[in-house]
Amino acid sequence: SHSYWDQTFTQPYFDNSTKREVTTTVGQSAYLHCRVRNLGDRAVSWIRKRDLHILTAALLTYTNDQRFQSLHSDGSDEWTLKIASPQLRDSGIYECQVSTEPKISQAFRLNVVVSQAEILGKSEIYIKSGSDINLTCVVRETPEPPSFIYWYRGNNVINYSQRGGISVLTEKQTRTSRLLIARALPADSGNYTCAPSSSHAASVMVHVLNGK
């Protein structure tokens, strides 16, 4: 009958064009986008699968954990769960649920990873005075390229103007940064650190030796 078709087409349904798996690094806000067509007067809730905890319903947050927030703009069919400063324990399945009879839901997976910088080679480096210091830093386990990678000697950012012969080549897409200090002197000895945005830093000890 006619009413059967009307009913079928006015039922809410999920638009499957959004990403169902999201990977982020610890501390970097994550967003899960749920798109519901024909929502009508139904409500959209976000539920954490492991303990069936209702995090948000419509625009209200139902958890004491203020890191969870529902984002929605008027007239849009997207309901977004924002997880601010996610931790490893936040990894898992989150369900976007619509209050139809029976309820319909769509599962999203959040992966929270620890991003770690690594300086290739040994953790202590010995070179002769007059040789080059050549360090390569790689950022591991990062879904997004770092927005910056800083190099430090001790507690100070390496200053290019202090002396010539220092160059840094950072390739964000390959997540690597190379530090070259030409004709190193004993004064260039110290603890060198590669510190990318939103990753754990890595350090090596460089000893520049006087002598033949």
TrEMBL record:
GO BP terms in the entry: synapse organization
PROSITE patterns: IG_LIKE (PS50835)
Native organism: Rhodnius prolixus
Name of the protein: Ig-like domain-containing protein
A Pfam short name: V-set
Domain Ig-like, first and last residues per copy: 12-99, 102-205
GO cellular component: neuron projection membrane
